[in-house]
Structure formats: C-alpha cells, structure tokens
Amino acid sequence: MKVFKEFNEKNKHNTAVALGLFDGVHLGHQKVINKAIHSEYKSAVLTFTTKKNRPTKKIQQKDILTVSQRLCRLEEMGVDYVYIPDFEDIKDLTPEDFVYNILHKVINAKVVYCGQDYRFGKKASGDVDVLTSLCEKLGIKVEVIGQELYKDEVISSTRIRKLISSGQVDLVNDLLGYNYFIDEVVEKGYQLGRTINFPTINQPLSENICLLKFGVYISSVNIDGKVYKSITNIGIKPTITGNRQPLAETHIIGYSGDLYGRKLKVELYKFVRQEQKFENIQQLKDNISRDVMETIKYFEKGVDKSC
C-alpha cells in the first residue's frame, strides 16, 4: 500500500476511490471501501488527518482509531493507495477544485464511492448530488453506498464511540468487524509489576482518541507473529502515587523478555472489571491473579482468538 500525504504526484493508474474520514474503518466504512477494492481499477482511499483543524461537525469528536491504526486496517483490507492530507490543506477547496484538481488530475479516478451523507469542499458545501454532477462532466462514475445495519440499527462512528466510552468492547468489535486494538510503542514505567511477579508493558494512549472506560480487559498481544493471552488495564493506575496519564498496561501471560521501544498490537475482547484503587500492593496482586484466571478461562471456553 502506498500512502500520499500531499497531492504532488499524478497516479499513472486508473483508480476507484472510496471517499470519507473512515475514522473507525467499521463495517459501514468497509462497505464503501470494499467497493473500490473489488472494482476493475486500482483501489484508492481519500481521507484526511485532523492534526491542525477539524471539520465543523466533528470539532467535539474524538477519533476511534489513531492515524497509524487507520492505515494498518486499510492495508490489511488490501487498499492500493491512500491519500491522507491534513484537513487544513484541503478545507478551503471549492467542490469544483476538489473534483477536478484532486480526484481527476491527481488520483485519476474513474469511479468514486461514498456514503449518502458525504460532504466535501469549503464549509462542506458539496454533497453527493454536487459530487455526481461534477464527476459526470469528467466521465467519473459516482456510486452512493447505503448504510450498514447491525441488529436493526445503523452502524455509525457515534454509536461506536458510546460503546467504547462504556467499556462494551465486545459489541465494539461486532460493529468494527475486527478486534479493537492498541498499537503504541512500549515505554518504561515504574516496573512495579516485576516485583509482584506480574510484569507489564506500558503503552501511552493518544489524547485525540475516544478513551475506553477505565478498567481491566481480556486481551491478546502479538509478538513476532505469536499471539499471547493477556490482561490489559486501561486507566491511570490509581494505586500508584503520581501517575495520572491514561495508558494501557498489559500483563502478557507466559511471556518474559524486553519489549521496550517496540510497537506491539494489543487486541481487546471483553471488559472484566472497573479500575480500582487498592489499599495495598497485596490487594493489587490478588486481583491481578483473579483477572489472569478469568482470562485463561475465557480462552479455554473455545473462543478462537488465535492464542
């Protein structure tokens, strides 16, 4: 998969382009993206980052995935090209400029796919009707994709954010179509876990993402292609004085080794309990032991998580 952060190179291939923020790459987003992947042309996704600015309708929203996670999922899906400029660099384009100078001249689009609520251009002035009209003049076909449902409700990023905030990661996974995951670089912590025989890896959480409900989750970690059962605490480690930065702290069952500085993928499956402040380290140790046992039982029930 080739990634472009700027529009400075014309694509020599004819492309089928999926349009959208795709902040969760959930099943609804995948429905649009798969249209491009399974077309007769090279597949492309045109999305954007929001480092400097955000669309007006999304100012208060937190992201479901980091940019790194989005790109990971798009590559796993089999997308050929991803165009991902910062929103600041495209927000003032007129609908005409967007279609002619980007879709036509740079990405070489022959067909584009989008959801029915897709907006583009300065102040979101363009809708699917404007897109269809402008593309038609350039011989570009437009196909508007209907919404995807799960249990008779629309799959949306808003719905998923609410589930993330309430810790319902098992339902989040159903709507995403894959397991919610963390893929940050492992940093050094207080190393308390080593002293109580439960060493952990610490991964900081981006301030721009929608935080999971603080608590303990059944998880797994992929290390060099091998998947290990694990237990992950999302939160601020209230038992330990001084640390208030939200992070993911994961104990990997049956693994020992130095993982500092490595970017590891931790997949989450089920909420176990809320984060707690314990009166002493022994209480903490006892609870981690129970969490580990529950994790082992979860996988022993025949749940296929490749562990």
Could you give a short description of this structure?
By secondary structure, the protein is an alpha/beta fold. It has helices spanning 27-37, 67-77, 95-104, 128-136, 157-165, 169-176, 192-195, 281-300; strands at 2-4, 15-19, 42-46, 81-83, 109-115, 141-145, 149-150, 153-154, 181-182, 200-204, 215-223, 226-235, 247-252, 265-274.
How many structural domains in the coordinates?
2
What structural class is derived from the secondary structure elements? alpha/beta
* CATH superfamily caption of the largest domain: HUPs
Q: What is the number of helices?
A: 8
Strand composition percent: 15-25%
Low-confidence stretches: none
Question: What does the overall shape look like?
Answer: elongated
Find the CATH topology of the largest domain: Rossmann fold
Strand-helix topology:
Elements: E1 2-4, E2 15-19, H1 27-37, E3 42-46, H2 67-77, E4 81-83, H3 95-104, E5 109-115, H4 128-136, E6 141-145, E7 149-150, E8 153-154, H5 157-165, H6 169-176, E9 181-182, H7 192-195, E10 200-204, E11 215-223, E12 226-235, E13 247-252, E14 265-274, H8 281-300
Parallel strand pairs: 1-4, 2-3, 2-5, 3-4, 5-6
Antiparallel strand pairs: 7-8, 9-14, 10-13, 11-12, 11-14, 12-13
Helix pairs in contact: 3-4
Would you write up a description of this structure?
The chain is of the alpha/beta class. It folds into two domains: 2-157, 3-Layer(aba) Sandwich (Rossmann fold), CATH 3.40.50.620; 179-300, Riboflavin kinase-like (Elongation Factor Tu (Ef-tu), domain 3, Beta Barrel), CATH 2.40.30. The protein is built from eight helices and 14 strands. It has helices spanning 27-37, 67-77, 95-104, 128-136, 157-165, 169-176, 192-195, 281-300, and strands spanning 2-4, 15-19, 42-46, 81-83, 109-115, 141-145, 149-150, 153-154, 181-182, 200-204, 215-223, 226-235, 247-252, 265-274. The longest helix has 20 residues, at 281-300. The mean pLDDT is 89.
